[in-house]
Amino acid sequence: MNDYGVVTAPGTMRFERLLPGPIERVWSYLIDSDKRRQWLAAGTMELRVGGQVEHVFRHWELTGNDSPPPAKYAKHADTESRMHGHIIASEPPHLLAYTWGETEDDGQPAADSEVRFELTPQGDNVLFVLTHSRLPNHDYMIGVASGWHTHLSVLSDLLSGHRPTGFWNTFARMEAAYLERIPADSATPQ
Questions:
Q1: 64 vs 115: CA distance, rounded Å
Q2: Burial class of residue 128, CB neighbours in 10 A (0-12, 13-18, 19+)
Q3: Would you say residue 188 lies in a domain?
Q4: CA dist 115 → 33, 60, 79, 130 (Å)
Q5: Which of 4, 71, 125, 152 is most deeply buried (CB count within 10 A of its CB)?
Q6: Residue 89 belongs to what domain range?
């Protein structure tokens, strides 16, 4: 299984990870705010179609042994940010999908993309598939690819009993890698 996300259609990235199960444990890291904040973001989630989703990002809390974020992400060094969306699909513990970033902290509309998590048991493990679609431009795709790759590394470490390290160190490496991997014409046509 390739750890790198791949472009599967214009404006769409797909990531696959084989994570230690059982499926209910992995599912809890998607829906439980306290567990989700350890690898992605805290926040409320109304687990029904049409329910609200809030992500409260505090990147500095995710890992130790880290460098400051790259310059264009400097505001995330020690300031929380919030994103809001709505549940599109919920079939516990196999499927969760929601809009990603309908509004930003200031209440202004943001890129209205979609995130879909699919979990499938495979023996003692869980195939975890994340698809992020409707990505509006190349820069956004690079940020999303680097971010998800890094967040999923943290999740994998947590579920495997390892201490995650260096969120921004990993992010910077992944950003450079995805700049080479993702063609400029991969975004959703406007």
A1: 27
A2: buried
A3: no
A4: 17, 23, 24, 7
A5: 152
A6: 6-181
